[in-house]
Design brief:
260 residues, 6 helices, seven-stranded mixed β-sheet, alpha/beta, Rossmann fold
Length: 260
């Protein structure tokens, strides 16, 4: 006889910290999954395809059949370990291969048979019934490194981040952007890739509470496209460090303002 899994017991809403995962395949993860990646942290959950909370194991995403290890669980584990009183909830919304133009209201991305922007909003809103959105992680841009799309990328990205914060009623929620790949031995960046990277960095100056995680030294899968599992875990640490520094600087600014 088969028994349904027991429902996960959720913490109070103010103690359930949500992490929204956006972008394309290097956020969804394509690292090879091993048994250790199936061992959940006791205070880290993920929203499954049906919108239910379950213990977080890789793959966190389900955008494509090759979904694997990404940066999300490492980030979430570190966040949970930083405060024993919280539980962390991962909200997967990345879509492999998706260009920034597909992250607009109403747009469909055929590769994943989904609506990246609309689905991210819907999944985040559902999650926010149970918890509090604390940070958005973003890794995207590989699909926009061609000459023509790269010239439009900055404005599209700025619009996307502004719209996301507005629709989720989270105008100050931190956003951490992961840098595009710089794999050892790979050819020099094209002008288009340089433009996309410049747009990512510009967001940290043009919008409040935006951090940037560098990809120096991270290595690739045999496909030469995706970060391997170990590098994804390292990237998760870098996303977390960027978030920690951003949060610390925000708290310092707030404290300074309150003292004046």
């Amino acid at each position: 006889m088969l028994f349904a899994a027991e429902p996960v017991k959720l913490p109070p809403k103010e103690k359930f910290d949500l992490v929204l995962l956006t972008g394309q395949s290097n956020m969804a993860g394509r690292g090879i999954v091993t048994p250790e990646d199936k061992v959940p942290h006791p205070r880290v959950l993920m929203q499954n395809k049906a919108g239910e909370w379950v213990p977080a194991v890789d793959p966190v995403h389900y955008d494509k059949s090759m979904a694997g290890v990404g940066p999300a669980r490492t980030f979430a584990n570190l966040l949970a370990d930083s405060d024993p009183s919280i539980t962390v909830g991962l909200v997967p919304a990345a879509c492999g291969g998706s260009p920034i133009s597909s992250w607009e209201p109403g747009k469909k991305w055929e590769q994943t048979n989904s609506h990246p922007y609309d689905d991210a909003i819907a999944r985040a809103r559902k999650a926010m019934q149970d918890g509090t959105l604390k940070v958005i992680l973003f890794h995207q841009g590989e699909a926009d490194c061609g000459d023509a799309p790269s010239k439009l990328y900055h404005d599209r990205l700025l619009t996307f981040f502004k719209s996301l914060r507005t629709e989720l009623d989270a105008p100050e929620v931190p956003i951490i952007i992961g840098q595009l790949s710089k794999f050892p031995g790979s050819k020099p960046w094209s002008e288009g890739k340089k433009r996309v990277d410049a747009a990512h960095r510009a967001m940290t100056q043009e919008l409040p509470n935006v951090g940037f995680a560098e990809s120096d030294g991270l290595t690739q899968n045999p496909d030469n496209i995706h970060f391997d599992a170990e590098s994804q875990k390292e990237f998760g640490k870098r996303y977390y460090e960027a978030f920690r520094q951003l949060r610390a600087s925000t708290h310092a600014t707030d404290s300074g303002a309150s003292e004046r």
